[in-house]
Prior knowledge:
Beta-carbonic Anhydrase, Chain A; 45% helix; 6-stranded mixed beta sheet; alpha/beta; 2 domains; single chain
Amino acid sequence: MRKLIEGIVEFREKMLPHYAKQFSRLALAQTPDALFITCSDSRVVPDLLVSTHPGDLFTMRNVGNLIPPATAEGVSTGDVSEASAIEYAVLVLKVANIVVCGHSECGAMKAVSTRKAKLQTPNLDRWLKHANDAAFRLEHEGPLDDRLKPHDQLSQLNVLVQIEHLMTYPIVRQQVTAGALILSGWWFDIATGDMYAYERTSRSFEVIDRAAADRIIARLAGPAR
């Protein structure tokens, strides 16, 4: 806690003068371009990884970057917190992008991989069931990259499954079909600091270097947008 308190003072004294005008403007409204869904893991820091500033990202974090699927009526089959964030981002903020970002060495994916009962964590056990489809897919279809550890193989597939869960929400599906919303799957390797994007053509996660970034940006700016 001491580190947090001292950090507040450091921000106030050194950083706030640089952001004062931006915060004054943001106090009236926010217009983020993307909803960024990622894990609660302390090693995953969205604003650091994508070099964004206050007001750029609408962020939703939870254990395992999971999205409970919706019913045909658009009602979440799990915690309504995630569904509420999706509704607000799509209907109110009108974001143009939703990113689901998983990561290496994810504790949630390790728990799902080992399938060990957590007798003292009934809520966590119930929550992690939203990754069961990813575990089933890994077991029956195999990994996207067999060089990875099993829990990292699961983590990558889990990103794709959660995107599929997003598409069960009518408001998301409608906006995607209309070309007003793009869903992307990313995966962060903590050990190397590299971010990867899923490419449907190669059915793999490819590192986002300068060349890949140019291709992705060009695609996002294409006719579908």
